[in-house]
Amino acid sequence: MSDPKSAPKTDPRTDAPAAGEAGPEQKPRDFIREVIEEDLRSGKHARVATRFPPEPNGYLHIGHAKSICLNFGIARQYGGTCNLRYDDTNPSKEDVEYVDAIEADVRWLGFDWDDRKYYASNYFGPLYQFAEELIQKGLAYVDDQSAEEIRVNRGTLTQPGKPSPHRDRTPAENLDLFRRMRAGEFPDGSRVLRAKIDMASPNIVMRDPTLYRIRRAHHHRTGDAWCIYPMYDFTHCISDALEGITHSICTLEFEINRPLYDWVLDHVSVPCHPRQIEFARLNLTYTVMSKRKLLQLVQDGLVRGWDDPRMPTLAGLRRRGVTAEALRLFCERIGVAKRDSQVEVELFEHCLREDLNTRARRVMAVLRPLKVVIENYPEGQVEELDAAYFPDDPPKMGYRKVPFSRELYIERDDFMEEPPKKFFRLAPGREVRLRWAYLLKCERVVKDPATGEIVELRCSIDPHTLNQNPADGRKVKGTIHWVSAAHALEAEVRLVDRLFKVERPGEERDFLQDLNPASMEVLPAARVERSLSEAAAGERFQFERVGFFAMDADSRPGKPVFNRIVSLKDSWARIAKAEAGK
RNA sequence: UGAGGCGUCGUCUAAGGGUAGGACGUCAGCCUUUGGAGCUGAUUAUCUAGGUUCGAAUCCUAGCGCCUCAGCCA
Prior knowledge:
This protein is an alpha/beta fold. The protein has three domains: 123-235, Alpha-Beta Complex (Glutamyl-tRNA Synthetase, domain 3), CATH 3.90.800.10; 283-359 and 489-582, CATH 2.40.240.10; 363-487, CATH 2.40.240.10. 25% of the residues lie in helices and 22% in strands. It has helices at 31-42, 62-77, 96-109, 124-136, 147-153, 171-183, 232-242, 258-267, 291-299, 314-320, 324-334, 345-359, 571-580; strands spanning 49-52, 81-86, 117-119, 140-143, 192-195, 210-214, 228-230, 247-251, 275-279, 361-363, 365-366, 369-374, 383-388, 399-404, 407-411, 431-434, 439-447, 454-462, 479-480, 482-484, 489-496, 520-528, 540-543, 547-551, 561-567. The strands form six sheets. The protein has a seven-stranded mixed β-sheet, covered by helices on one side. A seven-stranded mixed β-sheet has the order 19-16-17-18-12-15-20, with no helix packed on it. Strands 4-5-6-7 form a four-stranded antiparallel β-sheet. The longest helix is centred in the N-terminal third of the chain and has 16 residues, at 62-77. It binds one RNA strand through helix 5, strand 6, helix 7, helix 12 and strand 19.
């Protein structure tokens, strides 16, 4: 045995190396960490400070999880800090409702900001002072043009803009006007404060960008204290600087804004100048990530809410039963780079299975019940059979008793009257293993005389095969799961599937046209084994041979509800599909 | 056709002048009282064309393609 002290472990599911392990031979895992390590090595920074800056105007989704894992993960890895900061500069879009949800999501993901919760709106005072500083330096002016005029005069991608007629107002005049803007002397939209940079810049962002607008809206934090609000480009960089952020990590679409980020910080009296670094946001196949589209799904009632288990929101994933560990594992596996990418949802599903496989107790549940009567088993007899919760390593999770009796339910899919080749489950005259119990042979098929539907199977067991193979050496290929009809609980099972039926929803037509009509199949009369009567909402199980499931909050005593987190890999489905295609 | 960015297996991501590697997916096999898990193996990639070099995914030149930007959104 190796000495645990000499063999420090790194948990691949977190990015926290054991203390002292981050030696010089340890390579950074992405280009951002490369930059950070260089800054640490060169002495540019003695510590690392990042931030996660959501706007409280919607729920967090799996794309945010990538950013959260990056920002908080880097802070954790390098012994630094990561602030939670709300980018709340647009009162007409934001709401406290989202603030609470965001915090719950970040905590659930496994990260913490201690006492470093900030709001950009807390900086409205300093921000205003910095704006006056720019005015006094002749670097900002009040513009009376309408939004339309400003737009027209901004020029186009190939043509330079035209200077505003108010561009050369004196600092004194601008200061007076700006103070009166703040004092509420002018109507909404009548004037803005603009940076005086370069109307001919090839980068449109630099053509005298708007810094402040007049907007009489109630702010969720500052109430009616302000009628002017700063814009993102002015606010974000200064907020970063005021918080002593060293590396301001954001997504690619802000790359074009970086010159403005740097311009503002170069011209106001802030204590430091953080470095903005951009990475590619997460795109996932078979899903949509835009706030607008997610909001539409909720508002149009196409899903049951922000926490609908089909949604890519953190709330939805959590309700579905996804673990924070699996999500973190996924965020690590996808990596961080600058090129646009679309990650296959199969990788996410793989991470789910990898994590759940080691932690979910195995139980039996029959989704679409088919009754089986064992003709050679005495009526009224019940055997309590031992079944391991984790058959690959039974001591790990222990055992429960599973009742066995004359009448069972098996999965309808596990019986075929005319089985194709390679189908080795139950069929007339064929024998299978009942999990944890006996060999079962199908003697007769009972059908509804009117419809021809199979209503029941009459079967027999081999009484000498309880947890052992038959003495005559005959082999059975299939093992199927079952529940005792008299002891099972009725349950609702929600077969959660991909929300969209195409890899890139909305690419060829409106994204709503791409919704998967079978994204949540509800089975109201599934049967689950007796032991599940003690399950609690949020608990996760593997329904053997079927998939991983989590008990939903909609569960009621005597009528549990389960969401499918992810199915098990189904190689029979692959075979059947291949056979059908021949 | 302005500016900024990006092009490596089907997908995501390494290699930063010296064996193009890993993961997911796919395919084949082994194993199995979960057609799960696990184990073996296979498959397939440097956008193009020149150049520098003993040697180029990497450096240079010229192309090509994709993404972002013309909110008083972030």
